[in-house]
Amino acid sequence: MTQPYIGAAIRRKEDRRFLTGTGQFVDDVKLPHMVYAAVVRSPHPHANILTIDASAAQQMDGVIAVFTYRHIEALVKPRPIPLRNRSYPGIERFLQYPLASHKVRYAGEPVAIVIAETRYLAEDALDGVVVTYDSLPAIVDAWQSMQNDVLLFEEHGTNVAYEFTSSLGDVDQAFRQADYTRKERFHCHRHTANPMETRGLVASYAPGRQELTVWGETKVPHFNRRVLADMLEMPEHRIHFIEPDVGGGFGVRGEFYPENFLIPFAAMQVGRPVKWIEDRREHLTAANHSREQVCELEIAAKRDGTLLGMRANIYGVLGGYARTHGAFIPVSTAALLTGPYRIPNYGWDVKCLLTNKVGMGTYSAPGRYESCFFRERMLDMMAADLGIDPTELRLKNLIPPSAMPYEVGRTRPEDYVITYDSGDYPALLHKALELVGYEQLRSKSGLMQDGKYHGIGTACFVKSTGTGIPYEGARVAVVGPDQVAVYLGVATLGQGHETVMAQICADGLGVPLDDVAVYHGNTDFMPYGGGTSASRVTTLGGNAVYGAAQQVREKILRISARYLDVRPGELEFVQGHVYRTGVQASEPVLTLGQVLELAGPASPHHEGEVGLEATYYFQASQECYPCGAHAVHVAVDPETGKIDILKYVIAEDVGHVINPLLLTGQAIGAAAQGVGATLLEELVYDDDGQLLSGTFVDYLLPTSQEVPDFELAILDLAPSPINPLGVKGAGEIGIVATGAALSNAVSNALGVQVRALPLSPHKVRELAARRNEA
Amino acid sequence: MTQPYIGAAIRRKEDRRFLTGTGQFVDDVKLPHMVYAAVVRSPHPHANILTIDASAAQQMDGVIAVFTYRHIEALVKPRPIPLRNRSYPGIERFLQYPLASHKVRYAGEPVAIVIAETRYLAEDALDGVVVTYDSLPAIVDAWQSMQNDVLLFEEHGTNVAYEFTSSLGDVDQAFRQADYTRKERFHCHRHTANPMETRGLVASYAPGRQELTVWGETKVPHFNRRVLADMLEMPEHRIHFIEPDVGGGFGVRGEFYPENFLIPFAAMQVGRPVKWIEDRREHLTAANHSREQVCELEIAAKRDGTLLGMRANIYGVLGGYARTHGAFIPVSTAALLTGPYRIPNYGWDVKCLLTNKVGMGTYSAPGRYESCFFRERMLDMMAADLGIDPTELRLKNLIPPSAMPYEVGRTRPEDYVITYDSGDYPALLHKALELVGYEQLRSKSGLMQDGKYHGIGTACFVKSTGTGIPYEGARVAVVGPDQVAVYLGVATLGQGHETVMAQICADGLGVPLDDVAVYHGNTDFMPYGGGTSASRVTTLGGNAVYGAAQQVREKILRISARYLDVRPGELEFVQGHVYRTGVQASEPVLTLGQVLELAGPASPHHEGEVGLEATYYFQASQECYPCGAHAVHVAVDPETGKIDILKYVIAEDVGHVINPLLLTGQAIGAAAQGVGATLLEELVYDDDGQLLSGTFVDYLLPTSQEVPDFELAILDLAPSPINPLGVKGAGEIGIVATGAALSNAVSNALGVQVRALPLSPHKVRELAARRNEA
């Protein structure tokens, strides 16, 4: 079967509407009689609620309703926002309710919601909801949390929401027998994704048919629909989620937040459509934060650098509640802490700690960015201690391709084992070193040139993808002679699925690419859907499209053969036409339109299988493991703390490539986010639990000035052996090693050891000052 | 398998929203920036268009656009509105285009469309579109049309749009050998359905995704979508039809009319949603007319009343164009003219004649109301001639149940033969006679009492149902532990499908009725759909739901048996629970929710069949034939022409009854329409081709004063043997014999022969006057 489209650098089909300004985002949804919501949020990080008096707000012109926890309670049984996918025993005691009932646990927590005729009136009315609080001391870091002096949930007697301890091999023996050990404490800073478009929802309820339509649900619409149905006590099939175009997700958008209940609930109560668009301040102070972790890491090795063992205490700094991901992020840190290296003995303890900050959720490559930073920093320290070149040390310990598939073991509290499916890790590092010019740069390491210290950093990584729900479905339907529709269960957040899935369908089915249209983002399209996270869409959804397309293709051949009275093997279906096998140069024997007629419900030829349509669920036996290496050359100005990235090389292997053009965009976009996150972004809290960087004045995003011209090498050395397309998922891959590679480079440049991120200018100046001390 | 719901008199689920005023009809669809359409219509019944100058309209405040044929032509290839389902060779030359190009052929024909900010502005601007015409002579009846002096389509040289001649048996010999023959000319009057809600459309185009959504498409949405897709030259899957609640169809609503192209086209062109709601004048002057036919009928019989043969010339008086049904209505008259009687020799000729009137389409029981009137009148005349009681004559000739299935023969220009599936015709007539008290009333026939002549009339009928597309599909999906969704391909026009289909699903699947929700009216729900006409929904769609529900039920048992490691036969599924067969009193072994989990895409138990969902297409081998008899006792005031209906009895057998409550409503509603149509309604044209009864002042609808208390006997003697539910379709059955029974009763009362409908007061006075003459 020819595959003209898979692997081709095809431009994005969806860009036509974005470039012509005809995309439809959630804020473009306008409904008659629509009203607007604003959320009353706690100014206190930790306080008991004494009274809520909404009467002033309710009397304001244009205010339609104010809802508090008491109002909800009077109408439906309030339920907390549940964990998604995974369960972590005990953590469900610390879930968040859509509105605070008697206590607030972070500044920004929703206490009431105001519905008014306009956004302005709704926001003005926030002050009319008078809440009196009894303030309590705030907990802002892991150590305070663990003291349990101040408890966020008094009734549970602890701030440790979840703990998980386990090991592989014999860790103590490894450390006993080691020639070399070192122990360090690393700190990854709190930051979060900032998609260009903030979150937003429009909800409209039709009381006649008792149907609720919600626009703006993205990422995991089927999961969120089930949660909302439970909360509203209505059947799932009466709730329709429609995903408009989306301006970026990166993990933060689309989880079930308080507003995901409050807006539909309000729409049902006030009998008018309700819109809420998150503003940037709300995004920074109420949407999931991520990344904040402390890792006490200990390593054991032979004198020659051979790794023997690793021990880690990982402290995940959750916020006031366990949000949808509960313990997932620090657990993920532990799961892949050994990375692409053979480290046979590994012990770890994960603690999830409540603090009076915003709840923690995922940001691209959750736990993997962090673990890569912890491990790769440690390897560079160890290389220095042992007098080995850090890339030599890596090459010595990287799992060789001959060891694939490589079983790491059960590093998560779940029932399946981590097994790297394929990958040539040394080749990726060699490629990165070659491209960055490692040999030439080595001589410059740590030297000053034009007032800046030059340094080089490398880092290797592997990332699990397709985690979460281990299946995805798709429906492929031939609708007309030159019309094929693909229906996805997954959401799309801007990645280009309409193009990639069309390529996969066109090849799997055997039709011209232009005949294929991809539909997504409507919970009515598919009964099940695992959502868009963990780089799972192409891995699971792509293989589902491929499977469905192939089933339709087989049906086309089966029906044609029956009609022509030949064996199916005597026919082939190419570019929308049925040919006698091997005589494709000749005239087609049937067109797709003719076969569609044969398959029609009134045709005598369908034999019980009506229509040219198939739904296929691809089920993954395990995860995929894309991998790569970063190498970066920086020049650090010790006076200003500014880091110039002179060269940034990424070598990655994400399995078989569907569309190199889109992959390049994904890889570079992710790396750009990682550079920004590493150099600039930080959600800083003061000791009282107030967020100091709640606007873009203080929370700095990278601009074209900070983002380097990445040099990208996409190696297609190791297609995944565990799915038909050989793909591994690509969305988050580029970000994983950015913190690690940059911190190694800066350490190398300044001759100091970076132990904490971010590498913001004032912190780099402090590091540079320590160099002078040394 | 227990069937607690099929056959039960369950109240309509949909009435909750209608009774609480929360139904959503097309005029309730309001979109931001919506604009409004009004149609410029020809005031001339027949004219050449000389010029169209829209400049004055275009300059009016609030007018957004004016479109004429020339504008359409510049953007897409204009295509005529095609025939639906059937083809009649040659008639396609006379199809209508959405706008007139150079000639108008009926008063009311669309010439241009105006789009403006409000409905008022749009209507005001109609006068600003200046059209100059060169008027031509108008043709208003069958005889003028056949002369071909004036031609509607000069280029085709004839006004006979289609002709079909055929026979069964040896007609000439039958007439030669007959003891008795008679020839009559009957005339059925032009009238049409007037649903409470007029037609209406809202169209909205999203240029980004290139998707068009149209609200208000009913009856045959899948067919109409294909037509619209062809006309707009866009893929079908990019067009979404959404059917809101609908205030009645009766055949007239939902066919593809000019506006069904013009409104979506305009929405795409102006870039804003466009609404058009038909007003009553437009409905009467532009929506399909129906019924107008002349029938020259000749009958041959033995002296004892045994029917030997029948000859008919049927003249269908079409309008200026062949609309979607082309020749269907007069062809249907011919097809069932012999009715429930054994008439072995039958010859017929059908002519479809163009006239300068509104195009002809279907109205409930199209052609059957007419043929029943023609035949049953003739039988009463013959009974009088032969001195036989008319009910005796009928009983002598009715096909006995022992002759079932009874092959009538190929009475249509189609490839399948009419075969009555089942029915006890004599029992139905006996039942009607018994209920009306025929024996007692006979003595009163023709006598005056209190200034009114009393008469009794009877009529027997059979009606084909499930014609048209001989399949229908449905999808049944278990969505939650107590949530089952049924998706229909058919539209619903107020009949109660949400209740009936839920009953069928609940029994076919084995769940409580309240757990079932029925979805319909969205072309995205099902890829195919034959629409709602010809009383086909329960016959075809109901059996599709039943089949799909049974498939889901079998799957539930299959998965449960696999999981429990027993044979499927050892389990039964009752009211949402799996039990060991025969021990239903005991605890269920599995709940539906548990089985749903087992079938989930991540479950190891689904074995390739994910979800509890099935799509099933029921294919009919032939049509069904519900049947019945009407008997009516009238008192006619010769002075006023008013007819008092003292008793109206309907005995009908529509096969197995799903819901007697809804069937009663359908039967009585249809009969009420038939009474109104027979006594009051007429679309009267003057000799110049102008409609004189274009408002409800002149076109009279029945009120509670005219509609009698019907006495209804639903006999369930003859379930259809050709589908699993044994149903036959019921919607149109009640109307068939109304014209026949009432005209026989009036003839009987006045001692004259009614040869033409309607029996409006002034016509009854004329008839009464003839009595005095005689």
TrEMBL record, chains A, B:
Residues in the signal sequence: none
Domain Aldehyde oxidase/xanthine dehydrogenase a/b hammerhead: 20-137
One Pfam short name: MoCoBD_1
Keyword list, A-Z: Molybdenum, Oxidoreductase
UniProt-recorded Gene Ontology molecular function terms: iron ion binding; oxidoreductase activity
Name this polypeptide is given: Aldehyde oxidase/xanthine dehydrogenase a/b hammerhead domain-containing protein
